Amino acid sequence: MKLLRKGLWFITPYQILVLGYALITLLGAVLLSLPISSAQGQHQPFIDSLFVATSGISTTGLSPVDIGSHYNLFGQIVLLCIFQIGGVGYMTFVVFLTYLLRFQLPLTTRLVAKESLPGSDLRILEKFFLVVVAFTFIFEAGGAAILTQFWSKQYPFTKALYLGVFHSVSAFCTAGFSVFANNLAGYRDSVVVNLTIIVVSIIGGIGFFVLYDLYRFSAKVIKRERPRKLSLHTKITLIVTAAIMLAGTLIVLAAEKWPDNLPLPGKLMISAFQAVSASTTDGYNTIDIGAMMPMTLTFLILLMFVGASPGGTGGGIKTSTFGIVLCFLWSQLKGSETHVSIFKREIPFSTVHKAFGILTWFGIVALLDMIILSATEKASYLQILFEAVSALGNTGLSTGITPMLTATGKLVLIITMFIGRIGPLTAGYFLVGRQNPLLYQYASEDVFVG
C-alpha cells in the first residue's frame, strides 16, 4: 500500500477515505443543527443532528426525529445531499468533477477512489466512475418520474416532484428516509409505490460492478458478439440476492398474523416489500415493524446482517461475503476446505479469509453494541438487537425505540452506523494506520479446536 507522506505523518488511503466521510458528516451535522434547517426555527441538539447526519452519510435511515415535520425544506435538502453522497461515495463526485474539468488525479487520490468503491480498477478508473454516475442518474430519474406521476394526483406538481425525487434518491441510495410521518405505511396498498421502491432499491443495492457487468453482457447479446459471460462475482451476487429475498418474502408471509380482511396479493406485496427493504437495507416500511412477530423480526435481523452487495449503496456484510462463507462451509463438510470452488472456479483463499474476517468483525461490533445498549436502554432484548443490527447494517428499520434512546445509546449507534458505512475492516485499517507485512515466518505448531 502506497502511502502519502507529509512531514512525519504517514496517511494511508484508508485514513483519507474515513476522514473524508467524517468531515462530511460533521459539516452536515452542523447545518442540520442550525435554526435555518428547523421547521420551528430552533437549534437542534447536536447529538441529534449528528445522529441524523451519520444516518444520512451511512444511508441508514434511523432518526430520533420525524424528518418531515422537524426539518424545513432546506434541512431536508441538506439531508438529501448527505445520503446522496453517502450512497454513491464522495470520491465518485471527486473523480467525476476532475474528469469534467480535465484534471489529472494524483496517484494517492486514485488509490483512495479505488478503495472507496469495490469493482473499480485503476486502469479504467475514470470510465468506471462515469458509469456509476450515469447509472445513478438514470435510475434515480426514472424512479422520480414514476413517483412524481403518482403523487401528482394528490399534491401540486412541484410538491409531487419533490416527493418523487426525495424518495427515489432515498430508495436508490438505500437510505430509507421519508418525509411522511409513518414512512410509506400510507401507501401499503399502492402497487406503483411498492414496485417502484422495490426495483430502485434492488438496483441501488446490487452493486455498480454487477450493473456494469450486466450491461456489457446484454450489449453483447444484442449485438450477437462472443465471448459473452457474466463474472463469478455477478453470478454469486445475483443468486444469493434472489435466494434471500425469496426466502425472506415467504417467511414474512408465513410468520405474520395478518388481518382477516387483507387478501393474499396484499399480504404478498407487504412481505416482498419488507424482505427487500431488509436485504437491500433501504429501510422503508409499509407496516408497523414494532408490531411484527418475533420470528419475523429475527429473520429480518438476519437479512439486515447480510445486507446488500459490494460496490452498491447498501450495507451489511454483503451478499457475496455470505455466499463465500456458505461455499467454504459446504467445502468443509465435503473434506475439501482448502479448495473452495463454485461454478467451476476456485475462490482464492485470501478472499475466503477476508470474508470470514468481515463476518467476525461485524459480529464483534454487534456484540459490543448489545452489551452497552442492554445496560443503557429500557427496551426488550429483541428490540435492542434489532436496532443495533439495523444501525450496523445501515438499514434503518426500527421497532420504534430510536426516539427514546439515551445520549449514550445515540452515541453508540452513531459510531456503529459510521463503522457500517466504511466497513469494519476499513475502520480497523484506519486505526492501525501504516501496515508492516512480516518478512519472516515462525515454525508452525498445531492447536486443538472444536
Task: Give structural attributes.
4 strands; 450 residues; disordered N terminus; 2% strand; mainly alpha; 18 helices; two-stranded antiparallel ribbon
Tell me about this structure.
The chain has 450 residues and is mainly α. It has one domain (4-426). Helix content is 63%, strand content 2%. Strands 1-2 form a two-stranded antiparallel sheet. A two-stranded antiparallel sheet has the order 3-4. Strand 3 and strand 4 form a beta hairpin. Helix 11 (232-255) packs antiparallel against helix 13 (294-306), helix 13 (294-306) packs parallel to helix 16 (381-392) and helix 14 (319-333) packs across helix 15 (349-376). The protein is globular and about 70 Å long. The model is unreliable at 1-9 (pLDDT under 50).
Helix/strand/pairing category: mainly alpha
**What is the overall shape?**
globular
Largest sheet: 2 strands, antiparallel
Order of secondary-structure elements:
EEHHHHHHHHHHHHHHEEHHHH
Total count of strands: 4
Q: Any idea what the radius of gyration is?
A: 22 Å
Low-confidence stretches: 1-9
Strand and helix layout:
Elements: E1 4-6, E2 9-11, H1 13-33, H2 46-57, H3 67-70, H4 73-88, H5 90-100, H6 107-116, H7 125-151, H8 157-172, H9 191-206, H10 208-223, H11 232-255, H12 264-280, H13 294-306, H14 319-333, E3 341-342, E4 345-346, H15 349-376, H16 381-392, H17 407-422, H18 424-432
Antiparallel strand pairs: 1-2, 3-4
Helix pairs in contact: 1-2, 1-4, 1-6, 2-4, 2-17, 4-8, 5-7, 7-8, 7-9, 8-9, 9-12, 10-11, 11-12, 11-13, 11-14, 12-13, 13-16, 14-15, 15-16, 15-17
